[in-house]
Amino acid sequence: KCASIMCNCASIMCKCASIMCKRTSIMCKCASIMCKCANIMCKCASIMDKCASIMCKCANIMCKCASIMCKCASIMCKYASIMCKRASIMCKCASIMCKCASIMCK
Hints:
By secondary structure, this protein is an all-alpha fold. It has one helix and no strands. The chain has one helix at 2-105. The longest helix is centred in the middle third of the chain and has 104 residues, at 2-105. The protein is rod-shaped, with a radius of gyration of 45 Å. The N and C termini lie far apart (153 Å).
């Protein structure tokens, strides 16, 4: 009888071990999938980091360009102001010449 009871116990233990083995196998597969997902996420993060670096460099270049354009606009503004003053002087001279011509015509 003892041997029969021990055999039954061993059979039950064997079934339990088989169930645990299947569950462990499923858990192992899940862990493997999670590992693959983590690797993909890591690669994505690395690509995003490179993109951010490139975008930062582009922004710096654009900033330098804007600064140069600002300086150019300032220089053009100064020249325009000088030309405006000269045009004003030329206008006054033309007005004087017109008056002189008018006097001479009479």
